Amino acid sequence: MQEKDIFNLLTDEGFCNYCLKTNADDVEYWENWLEEHPSERENIESQKNLIILLANETAAQVTQSEYQKLQRRIQLSKKNNRKIFPLIMRWAVAASLIISLSFGYYFYHKAQNNRQIATTISNKTAPGSTKAILILANGQKIELSAAANGTIATQSNTAIRKTNDGRIIYDGDSKSLLYNTTITPRGGKFDLTLADGTKVTLDAASSIKYPVSFTGKERKVEITGQVYFEVAHNAAKPFRVLTRGQTIEVLGTHFNINAYDDEPTIKTTLLEGKVSVNYLGINALLKPGEQASVKSGVSDIRVKAVDTELVIAWKNGLFRFSKTGLRSVMRQISRWYDMEIIYPETLKNTDLFEGSTPRSANVQSILRKLEVTGHVKFKVDGNKIIILNK
């Protein structure tokens, strides 16, 4: 790289983005460029350090006296390190001249814009959070994350309360058969307690339809997506969950159902107690630690032992993978971060991923870990994750 080319880097917006790490595409470009031109790494690092120095100084709105101190420091460094760092000192002096011609003004506003860009990128790739919408029997919609704590609605003799920790609880014994629905959007998660004391946790892009009060001889709910249950015991009223043509019947137990439409199978996993899974007239009785898998339209239920901690990792705030395929991993990431996944026309790798990471992490850190352990690369473009074969 010629000296004049290096000089041009000081006013190259893409290079500034790379130095200040405020644009993922520019960072990726320069990292790739350095891999292809390793002999230029020392020169580039020198300019990177200078850019960071200038940005920090001007972002703090350098006063004239502070600027003069900066010039003296550069001159002193030049005198003391003439033989050791001739390149960076030469360009430090050049940069000081640029600052005197309002280059500092450019960097100040550049730093301001970069912070705004970084905030925007962070917001777009932030992890999911506690949020859901409650649809009452009369069609009224309540955004639960925005609702104040305390009683948020009353139906017949039942009060719907939002607790200090954000959970929704039904108190009362309504004689009317009214059905409510709680829905979590993509990037959402929510807890609620039904009228019988059953605790429910909904993962992102999930829903549960349930009666305000359980009347009659059974307790019946309908779900979509992924839901974890801790069913209150009542031998006189069996608890039934309906999803995609499948019925799970329990008396009192802890279990997880994964029934997303974009998943190839419906998976019911038992942690405590006993459940019966019915699908197309076939029944399977699960023991703790077992999982029943059902494929849509296939009259068969497969039962196997599984690691239950792996299954409910989502409820405990984790992504956990154990020989998990890329598409399965990306479906989880897509729902939690509310991002679209773009696959290459030909996905060459068949990687199986291992490990765990908090779901509170931003999506870039998750993708970096996947890049290290697999044969893929990722590019984040707005709300899209583009998968690239290495």
Automatic annotation (TrEMBL):
<dbReference type="Pfam" id="PF04773">
    <property type="entry name" value="FecR"/>
</dbReference>
<keyword id="KW-0812">Transmembrane</keyword>
<dbReference type="InterPro" id="IPR006860">
    <property type="entry name" value="FecR"/>
</dbReference>
<dbReference type="Pfam" id="PF16344">
    <property type="entry name" value="FecR_C"/>
</dbReference>
<protein>
    <submittedName>
        <fullName>DUF4974 domain-containing protein</fullName>
    </submittedName>
</protein>
<feature type="domain" description="Protein FecR C-terminal">
    <location>
        <begin position="319"/>
        <end position="387"/>
    </location>
</feature>
<feature type="transmembrane region" description="Helical">
    <location>
        <begin position="87"/>
        <end position="108"/>
    </location>
</feature>
<keyword id="KW-0472">Membrane</keyword>
<dbReference type="InterPro" id="IPR032508">
    <property type="entry name" value="FecR_C"/>
</dbReference>
<keyword id="KW-1133">Transmembrane helix</keyword>
<dbReference type="InterPro" id="IPR012373">
    <property type="entry name" value="Ferrdict_sens_TM"/>
</dbReference>
<feature type="domain" description="FecR protein">
    <location>
        <begin position="183"/>
        <end position="275"/>
    </location>
</feature>
